[in-house]
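Researcher: Next entry in the queue.
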Amino acid sequence: MSTVTLTELPREIAKKLLEIEAVALQPNDPFTWTSGLKSPIYCDNRLTMGYPEVRDMIAEGFAAIIRENYPDADIIAGTATAGIPHAAWVAQKLGLPMAYIRDKAKGHGKQNQIEGRIAPGQKVIVIEDLISTGGSSLKAGLAVREAGGEVAAVLAIFTYQFQSASDAFAAEGMELATLSNYTALIEAALEVGKVQSSDIDTLQAWRSNPQSFGRE
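Model: Structure for this entry, 216 residues:
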């Protein structure tokens, strides 16, 4: 990370995600998501846990963003489950407390949705692995607010850059920053030969209209 600037980070992270096959592009043989939506991209950032160099680049990238833009952050909170390990690595680098946020409150015990302690007034950085519609991340942010915390920002490894997600974050007044994004991924994929220049228009059209590849 010492040789990679925040400006260079989106492309470099994208290259690493392609290299370890955490992200794959198949514009001519689309994937089918759980929702049934057909997509030219599949992203599984959980694979980054198995690559120390990649996960450290991600953690240092998050830490650099926090140092530069949110130096008064009090606590790092990961979303369950994929955001938890990255939140732990970032919290360790910054010497900050850590918590994690469930999708919903437990049905037993203290019925916690947040594990760990977020005190009223604390500035919280929420760590997520992927932004699609943004729904799960916003839900986590609202849980932080319900606990009395202030969401300084939601940080994620990657975003598909859907306009609907940007609009949703803006509507809730939550800042969003990501290490990499769909635009950088396409550029990196073209550079390393994962896609052809003839695929670019198709890939860009999907981001503008995620329904364009159809549904199963």
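Model: Helices lie at 9-19, 52-69, 83-94, 135-146, 163-172, 182-191, 200-208.
Researcher: Noted, moving on.
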